[in-house]
Design a protein that fits this description.
By secondary structure, this protein is α+β, with helices and mostly antiparallel strands. Helix content is 61%, strand content 21%. The chain contains five helices and six strands.
């Protein structure tokens, strides 16, 4: 199935222009139909399988056929589990962060509600 450069950019976490550049340079094999570039999903899967990750500290660098490309951290999840599973994992982690923020805000609110009572007893 053919997908657009916009869909590929969403999957890889890169801009639409970057994907078009990869097509122009031959990093990704694309087919131009009218004004749009289309990429076969098999080609994208091959591209993802050729990626070699080198981790240096917190920065992640990716090398594809001798060319350096930087990817966001969730590309590791996308390569391992597939795009949709990676999105689910990302949303789950965001939900956990929001739950923690809610707990902190509730604690702050409780403190604010009871602080005026403490001030009364200090007098």
């Amino acid at each position: 199935m053919k997908i657009t450069t916009k869909e590929v950019s969403e999957r890889l976490g890169k801009s639409h222009r970057t994907i078009r550049y990869y097509c122009k340079e031959g990093i990704l094999k694309c087919e131009k139909i009218g004004r749009n570039l289309y990429i076969e999903e098999e080609v994208l899967d091959d591209f993802m399988s050729k990626i070699k990750f080198n981790v240096k500290g917190k920065k992640e660098r990716v090398r594809v056929e001798g060319k350096g490309i930087a990817y966001p951290p969730y590309i590791l999840l996308a390569q391992r589990n597939g795009y949709l599973e990676a999105q689910v994992d990302i949303f789950k982690s965001q939900i956990e962060e929001l739950k923690n923020k809610i707990i902190l805000l509730e604690e702050q609110l409780t403190y604010q509600k009871t602080s005026w009572i403490r001030k009364l007893f200090k007098r």
